[in-house]
Amino acid sequence: MSNSPSAATLRRGLMLLAVLGAIAGPSSAEEARRDARVTLLPAYSKECAACHTAYPPGLLPAPSWRHIMDNLPRHFGTDASLDAATLATLSSWLVAHAATGRRAGSPPAEDRITRSAWFAREHREIAPAVWRRPAVNSPSNCAACHVRANQGEFNEHDVRIPR
Ligand code: HEC
Ligand code: HEC
Predict the structure, then answer these.
(1) DSSP element (H, E) containing 10
(2) Ligand 1 pocket test target in 74, 113, 138, 140 with most atoms within 8 Å of CB
(3) Rounded-to-integer distance, Cα 94 and Cα 90, Å
(4) Looking at the predicted structure, is the pLDDT value of residue 80 above 70?
(5) Helical packing angle, 62-69 and 84-96, nearest 10°
(6) Which one of 6, 46, 72, 76 has the minimum C-beta count within 10 Å?
(7) Beta bridge partners of 75
(8) Is the dihedral of CA 114, 117, 120, 123 positive or negative?
(9) Using an 8 Å Cβ cutoff, are 29 and 123 in contact?
(10) Closest ligand 1 atom to the C-alpha of 114?
(11) Over the stretch 5-27, which tens digit does the pLDDT of each residue have?
(12) Whose Cα sits closest to atom 19 in ligand 1?
């Protein structure tokens, strides 16, 4: 049977798929995991992870970080102001480590990671009611489910959805 035209066609088809896969590069989930992995500046963990997860700089494009850092006194309904020196240090660190690949495109709505197209895709299997559970409260609360989010780890083995 191995010489039948259909087997040969199938083999060629599989080879073509493998080649196309190699050209397409890493999947969006792989790329997101890689973009999230960066050693955080201690000042970033201190100042920007007091109220929420230490969002990885690689998950937002540079214009979003600039816009966020230029508007800290009016930060999502709260005041997240910093002294001028810390503001300058953190702004340049965020911009230097901002998204490069697929995520470097146009800024998401409200400069939110959670409003990015890829975010919706990676989380499409989560039911709306899950986001509203008291232990989750908001999609922005990454660490509720990604137990190592503050270390920049978002792989599927470190996900526990709270009941
Ligand atoms: C005083 C508390 C506070 C501090 C300090 C703070 N934030 Fe926030 N941040 C918030 C709140 C509240 C939200 C909205 C969360 C929500 O919608 O659940 C938010 C949202 C965000 C988001 C959007 C998350 C999403 O939905 O994708 C980013 C990005 C962000 N903050 C970055 C920063 C950075 C950078 C710093 C440090 C300069 C910082 N935050 C410091 C309170 C704070
Ligand atoms: C309600 C729980 C929950 C919250 C909150 C949440 N996620 Fe997720 N996330 C998941 C689940 C479940 C998956 C799919 C894991 C899998 O691939 O099986 C996922 C997948 C991902 C992936 C792809 C990883 C992979 O290996 O496929 C990334 C990156 C990610 N999330 C980032 C974030 C970020 C950043 C935040 C916060 C702004 C966040 N998530 C908030 C549950 C959550």
Answers:
(1) helix 5-24
(2) 140
(3) 6
(4) yes
(5) 170
(6) 6
(7) 78
(8) negative
(9) no
(10) 27
(11) 676 776 776 665 555 555 566 78
(12) 76
